[in-house]
Amino acid sequence: MTRWQRPLLLALVHTTAGLLAAASLAVTLWGGLEGRPVAVAFGVLVAFGELTRWTGTRVREAAPIGAAAALAYALLGEAAGEPTRHGVAQVVTVVLVATLIGSVPHTARGRGPTADQLARRTLSVGFAATCFQPLYNQGAFDGWVGPAHALLLLALLALTALFDAVLAAALAHARTRWPFAPLLRDELRGMLGIGAAVCATGAVMALAVAVVGLWALPVFSVPLLLAQLSYRRYTAVRATYRQTIASLARATEIAGYTPTGHARRVAALGLAVGRDLGMTEPELTVLEYAALMHDIGQLSLVDPVPAGATAGLPVPEQRRIALLGGAVVRQTGVDPAVAVVVERQADPCREQPLAARIVRVVNAYEEKARGAGPGGALTALEELRLAAAGEYAPEVVASLARVLSRDAGLLAREHTG
Known about the structure:
By secondary structure, this protein is mainly α. It is built from 18 helices and 2 strands. It is elongated and about 80 Å long.
């Protein structure tokens, strides 16, 4: 996708979602609400889901209860044995209005849903409703009863989840310019976690309301609410874990072994290179932790390396520092994969895992470019390209050049931060 096509994709998605929302609202206002108690009940649940959404945390589904209720309403055919007659337009209108109402407190604090999130919710719910409501209202699913109806809902939800994953990956690609395939792979992998729980709860809600009525909504929301609370605690633990690693990484700065912010800059640039090379989220996590702690072996040195610049040291000395760093990392209880990356960052590039190659290249670049003036970045990059064969991985150097070319503003802030 070319540079001019990315803004076009964002505009196309947002415009499509806006047109769908506007048309749905107009149709609903003109014809009125069909099945008002059912619409209000689902709207309240969607709004409640938005009120309890995650804020300040990057998760694939920030409001799982709201998403499950929205999908259940899109695939609802009966309520307490009575057929429903709401169509696609009413589904989109109820879900969008409830989402906006539930988001008011978060928006007031500057943490409301983004335009991409609202577009995804609108288009995904509209997609699910379009696949089900017109055919159901025409009687096409009259023969689908019992297990067949449940399988039908699950199939439609799986199709909707796939649509949403492709949409999310496309939006992320357009905004970040990271490769599309790894983004889609991560989105699909994320469906196995909270995404699967959302789809399953949406199917169960639709089936239960069809039999016992609206009382099923609060009952079947409780398991997902408990799962959301547990997952929130898990993300808080992970955030604390990362902060602990970042604090350990700053030990070399506090002790005067490395310049202030060096580990943070290497981690930020390393993540950008890792994404450009298509690393998955778990691999990126290992890369980030290793980049933050890559210099921790210097704490074992009696005489600090001037400015912490290990890239210019003899290879045996680099390996000794790397092995010392790996030993320190292993004692902290961090994932052993992080210790492996730290230990092997000074090995010949052909023998290194990808994360170690990235840390080696980015660390060398940051050391060479540091304080070299306006042309320092280009000079450092050229030095890496002209280095002896096997010293730096060529594919990583090429990726670094691409990242520097397209993200020059961000990386300039990192170097001055």
